[in-house]
């Protein structure tokens, strides 16, 4: 039963890390397009509702991935004895 609990924890952490990797690849592959379309040279600091949504959707997801990995790692160690399957 302990081996199954360890496997479930590892499986969850692996899925979260794969999600972070996919998000990172998306950032790397679309950075040039983002610069051209979202931060154009005409008015780069003009704040619009669409830019606010874009920044929230793009960069908040990355922060949430990192917080999810950190918290799940901490909680896995802290509550390791209380896990029941």
Automatic annotation (TrEMBL):
Pfam families in UniProt: DUF6533
Q: Where in this chain does the record put each DUF6533 domain?
A: 25-63
Q: Enumerate the transmembrane spans.
A: 12-29, 49-75
Q: Which UniProt keywords apply?
A: Membrane, Transmembrane, Transmembrane helix
State the protein's name: DUF6533 domain-containing protein
**What is the originating organism of this protein?**
Lentinula raphanica
